[in-house]
Amino acid sequence: MKDTSFNRLLYFALHQRIHQIVSIKLSLLNEMVKSMRILLLILFSTLLACIANADEDAVEKYRNYLPEEIAALSDEERRSEIPMMYTMAAQTGLGAGAELYFGIQLNKLMYPGVENTPEAIKSFQRDHGEAQTGTLTVGQIHRLNYLAELQSVGKIHFPTDYTHGEFNGFASVKGTVKILDERIAYPINRVEISCYKNGMYCEYEQLVLIMPNEDSWAQIPYLNKFDTEIYEINRWQDGQIDAVPANQSPSACRMNTLNLNFSTQEFFEITRNLKENCETILGEVPKLEKPRISQILDGSEIIDEEFASFTEKAYQAWSTDVRARIEGYNAQE
Fold this sequence. Notes:
The chain is built from ten helices and twelve strands. The strands form two sheets. An eight-stranded antiparallel beta barrel has the order 2-3-4-6-7-8-9-12. The chain has a two-stranded antiparallel sheet with strand order 10-11. It has helices at residues 4-51, 56-62, 67-72, 75-80, 84-94, 98-108, 117-127, 138-150, 300-316, 320-332, and strands at residues 163-167, 170-179, 189-196, 201-210, 222-225, 229-237, 240-245, 254-261, 266-273, 278-280, 283-285, 292-297.
């Protein structure tokens, strides 16, 4: 007769060992991915800053160029001097069906765009203090696209649930991250932290909504889900969990730690400097004057305010004639 107890014990031991090996490899892989993601985010942010928030002189110099005038420039000038947002605006203006496209975009702003595009363009130019030529410059095309995309913001649903709890070796918190005493880059965000006592680690997931930005060539709102990060728990006691990043990269400039208190229902992330002077391939990372403290909380009010702000911007982008009629009706009530 087989010793089933021994077999079960052997199976359990092998299962645990495999789990440990897989966990270690996953942690190492996660750290590699995390480091690459951070580097790519830095590179992307820097590139976006150079292109989207283009040289103010270049923005001012080329904003009144027509698409045809941009196309007539030398390849070298277009590559080296023209802001990306104007290059893309020129491509839009020169594309097949450009007039119909502009008409549709103007319709979103309550102008009679499709019905009479040239007149709608003149009304748009009038509302924005521009000469009423009936032909859009690259600066006006860029602004039209930005304002038209704002109209879709109110249709976006973003999760605002705030939940937290600890039970039988498992703990989790879901909510919105807010930096205390600072404005966070993406206030419309959601984090979910799941912690496991058996294994002493936490998984950190974050979702952000990136809103249209007039200074960017990318003006469509989109969701960005960051890669899952792994944190090692160094203390789990009396409803409190402290955790640090698993396999912190030696080249990291800062470290983000978790302090989750399920007894007091207070959940914090704390970012600290790791080095006095931290140089990267893109230059020096500025030193934090003090630890940056972020709190995970019920962000429904924060997110509602952000959406309300964009909704107001979207309304203010409407044709002044239409807004005047609406406000006239409101005044009669």
